[in-house]
Amino acid sequence: MTSLTPIRRPRRSRSRAHVTDQPTRVVIVDDQPLFAAGLAMLIDAQPDMRCVGTAHDGNAAVTLTRQVRPEIVLMDLRMPGLNGLEATQLIVAEPGPEVGPPKVVVLTTIKRDEAVYLALRAGATALLTKDALPAEVLGTIRDAVAGERLAGASDTVDVVREFAGRAQTRTPDDTLAALSAREREVFLLVARGLSNVEIAEATVLSEATVKSHVRQVLGKLGLKSRVQVVAFAYENELMGMVR
Fold first, then answer.
1. pLDDT tens digits, the chain, 243 residues: what are they?
2. At the topology level of CATH, where does 169-241 sit?
3. CATH homologous superfamily of domain 4-163?
4. Which residue stretches does the UniProt record annotate as biased composition, category Basic residues (predicted)?
5. What is the pTM for the complete model shown?
6. Alpha helices in 9-166 (DSSP H)
């Protein structure tokens, strides 16, 4: 049975281009209502976050995100019916208002799982293990919203490193041909897991210029997130170019 619970709050503007002073809207998707309720309480206790709904299966998750337009979806992968991977693929493919679809953070009990990698490759932004500390959960959400660094970097890179090499499709010689020399440099620094601030320091560029280059890299390579840059680099055997 499909189950979803939108949480009614005072209406706010749905444009995310001008909501820096508004709480981050979070949807929680998990087939264990008690676990979802605990996460909702943690999120609602933060001044910069609000849980705007919970869902307990993939179909409900897709419906709910269309209704409430959150910035973040915390997505369990193992659910009956439409699973979390399939729901992630649908959510990240949705056209969103101005700044695109919600960012999906995968929830998993076992991080070294190909399903986790496939979700990241499909467009999820990061992963969280279900035994993560509250500070890790909140930090990963904030990093995912900001988009300035690879959220959940250590666990995320571990999963990508383990599974990405099995999906090689192109040769390193032509993989980055679409990028300018500067964009290629930024690509390789993102693949190392550097934040925008760290890239700016390494390249002696402004953070605004780095952000512009990151957007260009993602657009030209057809990627949705920083973690997809890391996966792309591993899949195409480009990590040897990264120092």
1. 445 555 544 444 333 433 457 899 999 999 999 999 999 999 999 999 999 999 999 999 999 999 999 999 999 998 888 999 999 999 988 765 555 789 999 998 877 778 888 888 888 988 898 999 999 999 999 999 988 888 766 677 778 877 876 655 555 557 788 899 999 999 999 988 889 999 999 999 999 999 999 999 999 998 888 888 988 888 888 876 655
2. Arc Repressor Mutant, subunit A (1.10.10)
3. Response regulator (3.40.50.2300)
4. 8-17
5. 0.81
6. 33-44, 58-68, 84-93, 114-122, 134-146, 153-164
